[in-house]
Structures are given as C-alpha cells and as structure tokens.
Design a protein that fits this description.
The complex is a heterodimer. By secondary structure, chain A is mostly helical. Chain A is built from nine helices and two strands, in the order αααααβαβααα. In chain A, 54% of the residues lie in helices and 2% in strands. In chain A, α1 crosses α3 and α4 packs across α5. Chain B has 13 helices and 22 strands. In chain B, 23% of the residues lie in helices and 18% in strands. The chains are: A mainly alpha, B alpha+beta.
Chain lengths: 167, 630
C-alpha cells in the first residue's frame, strides 16, 4: 500500500472511527473509548484494510474529504453515490461493529431481500463480545454480561446510556 | 467377581483401580449422581465415557462458542461439529470415533445425508433432538429448568385411559425429587410450585430463593392473569431453575448472560461436571475417557459378566486399545439413543440375538420428545429481551386436565432471548436494516409492502432498538404419545470410525400429539391477542422436513416442530417384564446385575423438562445398587 499524503490532524484510524460512528449511529467515544484496552477499532481497521485494500482506502478518502459536510450528505455520498463497491464495503464495516463478524461486500451485494443470511466469519472472540447490536437492544452480547444478578427484572439503562450521543 | 480390566498391550494405560463394585457406561447426569453416592459409600466405581474428559475450565468451550457462526447448542463441545472450526462445514460423522447428532443437520439437504447427520433418519419426520458424548453429558447444554412431573403424569392410563401408568407414583418419587433439587441446586419457592397436585415434604424448602421473573414474564403475566384457554386458567409461574440465585456449591450467582444454552460462561447454571468432580473427589471413582463400550457380555446364568470397550486418543484417529472390565453391578447411563444402541450391539455371538435386556422386545421403542411449537411476536411496548436467563417463567396450568383424554398436554415456556431462537436474532434483524433485507419481517412490518430500507446512523439505531426491545417468544412443550412405531435400532449400512453401527431412527407424530400441537398454536394465538402483541410466527417452507399437517378448527394447516432436546422412553420401566425393559428400580428384568438409567426409562414424556426426574430416578437407583452391594 502506498503511503498516503500527510494528513496533519486526523490519522486514518481516527477517520475510520469517525466514519464508523456516522454510519452506525454509535458515538465515536463509545466505539473507541479513550481508555480502550480491547482496541477493537484497530482490529477492525486492519481487518477491513486487509479484506478490501484500495476500496477501503477510497472509503476513508471519501469521508476525509467531506468530513465537514452534514452527516446526511456524507452518508449519501458513501451509500448512494459512490458505486456498489463503496456501498457494500460501508455496510460490511457497519455489520462488523454491530455483530463482530465480517460479511464480505460481494456476499452482501448478492443477497436478496429474503434469502438465507450471507456468509460470515466471527472476527475474534473479543469482536463478538464487543458487538453493538445487543447494546442497541439495551442488552448485552449473549454469553457476555457485565450486569448483576436480577438486573433483568428492572428496566435497562436508557438507549443513550448504551450508544452515546444525544439523539 | 470383580476383576482387573484386561487390555490389549498397545495403548497408554489409564490409571484404573484393580477392582470395581460398579461399572457405569456414560458420564452424564445419571452416572454422576450414582457415582457420587456410591463413592461416598466407599464403593469402587469405574465410569466408561465415550468422549472427552472434564476440562479444568470452560475456556476452550467458550472460545469455540464465541467464534462460531452458528451458535447452536452443540457448538462449544467436542468433537467440533464444524470442520474447520468456526465455519459452517459439517464434520463428517463417519470420520469420528464418538460422533453425535447436531441441530445443524435437520434441514432438507442434511437430515438424511449420512455424511452430515450422525443418526440415520428414516422419517417420516426428523427426530430433532440431539445429545452429547462427553463427560458431563447432554446436560452440559440444558436450560436449567427443574420442574417436577405432576402426579397424573405417572398414571395417564388410570386417570385418562391413555398409554401406560408408570410403576412409580408421585409419592414414591417425591423424596428423590427433594434430594435431586439439593444436588443440582434449584432456585424456587415451594409456595409457587404446589399446583396440579404437586406436594412437598412438610419441612422441605428449595435450597435457594427463586430467580426473579423478567420483564417479558411480567408482560405475559399482566395480560393472561384471570384469562382462560379452552376453559383452562392461564397462570404464569416462576420456573424452578438449576441456576444459582445465591452462591452454591462453590459456584457463582447468575449474572443473566442469556446463554444457558449452549453454555453458562460462569457456571452459575449447574451442570453434571459439578457432581462428577465430587464423585471423583471421593477417591473411589475412576473415569476412563475416550473409551467406547461396544459389547455387554452375558454369562450362562443370565448375568452380565463383563463390558468390552474400545479406546482412542484422537476422535479422528485410529482405535488405540481394546479391553474389558468386570464388576458386581453394571449401570448403562448413555442416554436414550446410545444405551439401546449398545444393548443391540451386544448379541453375545447369537445368544442374545435381539440384544441384551430385550426379552420384551421393547428396547429402542417408544422414542419420545417434547415436539416444540415456537411462536413469536412483538409486544406493544418494550419488554427488553436478550437479558436474564433464557427463561424464568412459564405457564404450567396447561399441563394437566380432562383434555388429556383427547389431546396432548403442553407447558408454555416464556423466552427471554427475543427472537434469537425464532429467527436467529439479533443477526437477522441487523442484516435486514443494514443491508436492506427483510427476513425478520420488520423492514417493513406487514401489512406494509414497500421495499426494505437500508438504514444508517440514528435511524438504524432507532429501528433496531424498536424491533429488538419488543421481541419475545413462547415455546410450547407438547407431550408426545409413546408409540412402538417410533424407535431406535442399528443402521445396517452406516458406521462410525470405530466400525460401530450408527443409530437409525423411525419417527412420527401421532394424531393425539398433533392435536395437542394444534391446541398449542391456538393457545399462542390467544395469548398474543390478550397481550395486544403482533405475531410474526412463520409457516414452514414447503421443503422443511419438520413441517407437518394438522387440523385446526376443521381446517388443514401446516406447522413446524422443533426438538426440545428431551430424548425419552427407549427402555421403559414397568411392572410387567413382557412389556417393559426395567423395573421400577431401573433394574433389567433379564439381567439382575444390570441397571439402565436415564430418561430412556420414562413410560411417558409428560410435559416437564425431564432432567429433574432423570436425576431423582438416578439417585433412587443408586440406593438400590447400594442395597444390592451391602
């Protein structure tokens, strides 16, 4: 991979986190907390880069070059206006954060609306246990609870407590 | 009569004591219960286990679970059901020394393919429950539900003119239920459990306080309390659970991992390794693993004189040794498929042509399960599933009544895992909303017919939260009638890697069972209506082998059943040696020093999850064996 032109402020990893926050709806500080011993962002960055190479670099470039635009415009650029390679890679990245699994863009592109699930692979046990789908349900990954006995008898913390942000 | 195990010289030697009072085949819950009691009484016990040892911790099981794409009940355990691990490519059971069935082999393309499915299924319907061959047994992935049978479950013929009575009454087994509840560690309060004739000893209390009900339970309770289904009051009851509500047996309190099946990550849920380790700690119990019993030898007096076995080091590798072992008493505890298989394999050179313990001809017959009807819906308000133990309450009031003269009874399990069991959520709904699909029917919900949307950002979070937080399901465990025409036998064409025949199954659902299943469907519809919930239960695909026909309100319908993992009835007990395999003490009618234990001895499947009754009967059998030996 060629060395990207110097970007004085934002590293590619930070661009990846910011892009991921925009697409997933999960606050960047939650995807990548300041104290981040699991460092899953780096795992996902490396995984996507290894799987998608130049397309991944292009995805980051689109975000970086438009990062001051409104969120809806950036999302539209990525998901609607930059072609299927970028669109399905972006969906792969979202699914990676939500489920800890890699769904290849080509398999997502082939999937019909009610077909069996596309092929996937669990990226790592840590990735599974950091899956955001369960947090969005105000719950926890099955088999990985940080809650205490009896928590299920009460309402969970609010959705914002789980996903961050102010929406 | 005790003897040194004789082994061929080519293998590493496990450290086995020279003499045994009892040899047990299988190392699941029944074996663990019996071995611990015998070991505590100073009796020398040898357990032959076909599969792997008890690991020192569950880390490898958890790692396999986390990395599995299909997190089915069998996936943490060995041998790996997928090759390579983490893929969806099924391990060929022909290559395994101790294979076993798994739930990935029930679809139309797999269920009758012997390179994928361990059991040789003859139909017309697939037998859909599975079992493990590993120390700790199938109860490694039990739910934890520790219900007692109700008194009429033991006397279906006397009470309703159906099937057979057990040779035991509720009162006979009640003290053993108490002992089993304390060995397992059951959380419940007897004031909530004394329904449909269930009684307790006057000074008895469960060992731990109950597990709190979930918000899903609360929503169902609020809607159905005071309501009836076909004249039966609908009463939600906390489920007695083999799951810690306080520290017990040096194990932690439940943290609500919502993962009882396939595996509790913190062992707050009991599994038989607890009792098995306690048995080994007596110093009188020896466990030989990767040791497959392959023939029971009977002497001229009709007594069992030895059990032959084959050992291996690698489940995919060659046999490494053959040997035999003798004892004063023998106990077969290999669950309801492998136990008949071993008996059928034991023809003694033609002296027992129909197998050991089979003068009645009943061996392998009356195979039963709880065919499970699964119904799922969205509650009108969030019920916050995917939290807590997989199930914390059920409707038990539907388990008994005059209706059992005409149709099968059922209990209703309230699920806390959203639509995980139902459609594989949250994966399915997540894929739907991110990739613009609609397998879940939530993107959009009927009656809308617009094209699925692919969402991002706050809209994605909102749509997923709205769907997932309102999901719940009900599971109906239907009492299957005992039928001689549902049976296990030996395949004459398919073998495992040791050259032993694989189990062959013939299985169907009777009109009585189907009528109960149809009633379950109607009850689901009624309960969802009471709750104001929107139902999403789907009909089975045309090629789904688990789809079957029922009549509902005079009209034909097609429903799908699941296995409940409750394999029952293949060597039933009774009062008559011509119609049963064992007596009320689980002793073979044919061979007085042989016991067959486990759910295979059940005369009927009733509606309770079977584990507590299995454990109680095992403890009772242990007492008989001890009396024999003293």
């Amino acid at each position: 991979m060629s060395t990207p032109a110097p970007t004085p402020i934002v590293t590619p990893l930070q661009t990846f986190v910011d892009l991921s926050a925009l697409l997933t709806g999960i606050a960047a500080g939650n995807l990548a907390p300041s104290v981040d011993p699991k460092n899953i962002k780096q795992v996902y960055f490396n995984y996507a880069q290894q799987q998608a190479g130049a397309t991944f670099d292009n995805l980051l470039k689109i975000y970086r070059e438009n990062s001051t635009q409104p969120a809806g415009k950036i999302a539209s650029l990525i998901l609607d206006q930059s072609g299927p390679d970028i669109r399905f890679l972006a969906r792969s990245v979202m699914l990676m954060w939500y489920l800890g699994s890699w769904y290849a863009p080509a398999d997502l592109a082939k999937a019909g609306t009610d077909t069996p699930p596309p092929n996937s692979v669990v990226i790592s046990s840590a990735a599974y246990t950091q899956g955001w789908a369960w947090n969005v349900a105000q719950a926890h990954p099955m088999g990985f609870s940080n809650f205490q006995f009896g928590y299920w008898a009460s309402n969970p913390p609010t959705l914002i407590d789980f996903v961050g942000g102010n929406s | 009569m005790s003897a040194t195990p004789s082994r061929s010289p080519t293998s590493p030697s496990p450290s086995a004591p020279a003499q045994y009072d009892v040899v047990i085949v299988g190392a699941g819950v029944s074996a663990a219960m019996i071995a611990k009691q015998l070991g505590l009484a100073g009796k020398k016990v040898l357990i032959l286990e076909a599969g792997a040892r008890i690991p020192s911790n569950n880390n490898d099981f958890m790692e396999r679970f986390y990395k599995a794409v299909a997190k089915v009940p069998e996936v943490p355990y060995t041998p790996d059901i997928f090759t390579p691990s983490g893929s969806l490519s099924l391990t060929d059971p022909t290559t395994l020394n101790a294979g076993r069935p798994n739930t990935m082999t029930l679809d139309h393309s797999s269920w009758q393919d012997p390179s994928k499915a361990y059991m040789i299924q003859q139909g017309p319907l697939p037998f859909s429950s599975t079992y493990e061959r590993i120390a700790g047994g199938t109860m490694r992935h039990w739910l934890g539900t520790s219900l007692r049978n109700v008194p009429n479950d033991f006397k279906m013929y006397s009470a309703y003119g159906k099937f057979v009575d057990w040779p035991l009454s509720y009162d006979d087994i009640e003290p053993w239920y108490e002992k089993a509840e304390w060995e397992i560690g059951v959380s419940a309060d007897k004031s909530t459990q004394a329904y449909l004739g269930i009684t307790f000893g006057s000074n008895y209390q469960y060992p731990m306080k109950p597990i709190p009900p979930s918000l899903v339970d609360d929503a169902v309770t609020k809607a159905v309390t005071g309501q009836n289904f076909e004249g039966i009051p609908l009463v939600v009851t906390e489920t007695p659970a083999g799951r810690n509500s306080q520290p017990y047996q040096n194990r932690r309190v439940c943290a609500g991992n919502t993962n009882c099946i396939p595996i509790c990550p913190i062992q707050a849920k009991y599994d038989p390794s607890v009792t098995l380790n306690a048995a080994l700690d007596t110093g009188n119990v020896t466990l030989m693993v990767q040791t497959v019993a392959n023939e029971i030898i009977v002497d001229k007096n009709g007594l069992v004189s030895q059990i032959n076995y084959i050992q291996y080091e690698d489940n995919l590798g060659p046999a490494t040794a053959r040997g035999s072992v003798s004892a004063k008493r023998y106990v077969l505890a290999s669950h309801a498929v492998e136990t008949p298989k071993l008996c059928f394999m034991s023809t003694n050179g033609g002296k027992t042509p129909n197998g050991v313990a089979n003068s009645s001809g009943q061996m392998g017959k009356n195979l039963m399960d709880h065919p499970l009807y699964l119904a799922w819906a969205l509650a009108p308000q969030p019920v916050y599933g995917f939290r807590g133990p997989l199930a914390t309450s059920g409707i038990e009031s539907t388990r008994d009544g005059e209706f059992r003269k005409d149709r099968a009874a059922f209990r209703i399990e309230i699920g806390n895992e959203g639509w995980n069991f139902s459609i594989g959520d949250p994966w399915t709904t997540t894929l739907d909303f991110i990739n613009g699909m609609n397998v879940s029917q939530l993107n959009p919900q009927p009656p809308a017919t617009s094209a699925p949307q692919a969402l991002w950002g706050p809209d994605l979070v909102k749509a997923m939260n709205d769907g997932l937080s309102r999901q719940f399901r009900l599971g109906f465990l239907v009492e299957q009638s005992p039928e001689e025409s549902n049976y296990v036998t030996l395949s004459k064409t398919e073998y495992d890697h040791l050259g032993l025949p694989r189990p062959q199954i013939v299985y169907d659902l009777s009109p009585y069972t189907r009528a109960g299943f149809a009633a379950a469907k109607q009850a689901a519809d009624a309960i969802f209506k009471m709750m104001g919930a929107t139902q999403f239960t789907t009909s089975p695909a045309a090629n789904d082998p688990s789809g079957f026909d029922v009549i509902i309100d005079g009209k034909p319908d097609r429903l799908k059943f699941f296995g409940a993992g409750h394999i029952v009835g293949t060597y039933r007990m009774g009062d008559d040696p011509t119609t049963s395999v064992v007596d009320a003490n689980q002793r073979s009618w044919d061979h007085k020093n042989l016991f067959l234990v486990g759910s295979g001895t059940f005369c009927t499947v009733a509606t309770a999850n079977p584990t507590l009754t299995i454990a109680a009967l095992a403890l009772r059998a242990a007492q008989t064996v001890l009396e024999d030996l003293s």
